[in-house]
Structure formats: structure tokens, C-alpha cells
Amino acid sequence: MLTLILAESSLETIPPKIGRYGLTKTPSKKGEEKNKTILDISLHSRIVQNLPNREKRGRPDIIHLSLLAALGTPLNKYGFLQIFVHTIQDMVIRIASETRLPKNYNRFIGLMEQLYDLGKVPPEGPPLLTLEKMTLETLIKNLKPSETLLFTEKGTLLKLKPVMNECAKQENPLIIIGGFPHGDFSPETLKLSDKKISISPETLDTWIVVSRALYCYEEAVLDKNLNTK
Fold first, then answer.
1. What is the model's pTM?
2. Is 29 exposed, middle or buried (0-12, 13-18, 19+ CB in 10 A)?
3. Contact between 5 and 136 (Cβ < 8 Å)
4. What is the distance between the alpha carbons of residues 7 and 197, in angstroms, rounded to a whole number?
5. For residue range 166-220, what is the model confidence (pLDDT) as tens digits?
6. What is 2-226's CATH superfamily?
7. What is the pLDDT of residues 124-182, one digit of tens each?
8. What span, in angstroms and rounded, lies between the C-alpha atoms of 202 and 153?
9. Strands across the sheet with 129-133, in order?
10. 54: left (phi over 0), alpha (psi -120 to 50) or beta
């Protein structure tokens, strides 16, 4: 099974210490408490400007698009994929493979606000989404991957298909893709990978990297396990 981690992701609530500054409108609920509102640079630009690592903050749409791309793949539907979101605030979201996220962005934001408020979604019964405080290093140690690949513009430029074909030979491979719009991974994150890979001389959006990587892995794994072509 392949594990995908969207790391240092731009998904968080408005930091409580500065929540009283700037605009705090949210597209999901009117009058929402500031510390339960998902930070979105299109609505909270003045807040984002005052944050450290501001180039990596306030873009939950990246996670929405990337998760839709990953959850909708045959790889996930046949049970060959598990997905985690690690945020820039060291929160980890575990996403059940059967999760069907809203395609509407505003509804997605409402779901994330509920998750941050309650710690799991749905609140009753087996959760599809869970949220807990955890570093990326701890998450990786818990997963015990046989190999960890990190996709970064500063990595070795390689063709993606051979990389994922080799990845498919591993018993428990893990790939890390940045869930942020600009900049690079922190030095702490870079140390956690076995290999650092670049798949294009051009900058690619997160959801494009997710889609391409999963498709190449899917071809290798499903051809072998399901005799598909």
C-alpha cells in the first residue's frame, strides 16, 4: 500500500493571538468564532501578511483540490492508498479511504471547521476524518515506511514513471508532497526522506504532482494485482 502525506499543508484556523486583527469573514458560516475559522488568504489577507512563513499560509484550496484528486483515483478505491494531511501547525488529519469530500469549496471549508472544532467527522459513529496534534517526524515513525520519497523542486530531476515503478516494488512506500503554494520544505522535513525527487524543471501545482504520481504508481500496482491494462 502506498501512503501519501501532504506535508506542511496550508490548512489551519486563524491563529487565536492575532484573530482579532483584520477581516475574519468565512464563506461557510456567518458569525463564526475566529479561532474556528479556516484561514484563507482571499478573505484574510491582512492576517496572513503578519504571519511567519506567510508564503505558505492561507491556501486551503490546495488541500481541497489535492484530496479530491487522490480520493477519486482507482488506486484509492481498490484499497491501495492511505492519505494523511500534515499541516504547518503540526496537526495531522487522517482520511479514511471511503471518504467522499464535498466538491464545493465552501462546503469543504465548513467540513474542515467542524473537524477542527470536534476533532473528528462525523461526530457520531466511525470517523472518516480525524485530527490530532502530531509532528511529521512522529507520523512517519508510526507508519514505518520501507522507503520515503519527497517531491521537491530542489531534488534530483528524474522521470516520474520509472521512479514510481521502483516505488511500487517496495512493501510500504511513502511519498511526501508539499501542501503549500510557495517556498520549500523546512530543513526538518527534508531530513525525513530517503530520496528527494524533482519531476519537472517547471513549478507544478500540488494537485498536479499528486495526480501524476498516483497515476504512475497505479499503473504498476493495478496492472500487477488486478490484471488491468
1. 0.90
2. middle
3. yes
4. 15
5. 999 999 999 999 999 998 999 999 999 999 999 999 989 999 999 999 999 999 9
6. SPOUT methyltransferase, trefoil knot domain (3.40.1280.10)
7. 989 999 999 999 999 999 999 999 999 999 999 999 999 999 999 999 999 999 999 99
8. 8
9. 120-121, 129-133, 91-95, 81-87, 2-9, 173-178, 147-157, 195-198
10. alpha
Return the C-alpha cell found at 66: 489535492
Q: What is the pLDDT of residues 63-95, one digit of tens each?
A: 999 999 999 999 999 999 999 999 999 999 999
Sequence-separated (6 or more) residues with CB below 8 Å from residue 120: 127, 129, 130, 131
Q: Could you give the CA distance from residue 44 to residue 58 in angstroms, rounded to a whole number?
A: 8
Instruction: Specify whether the CB–CB gap between 69 and 210 falls below 8 A.
Output: yes
**The pLDDT of residue 94:** 98
> At a CB cut-off of 8 Å and minimum separation 6, what does 50 contact?
18, 21, 22
Nearest one of 97, 101, 103, 105 to 126, comparing CA atoms: 97
Q: Which amino acid belongs to residue 164?
A: M
| Residue showing cell 456567518 | 30
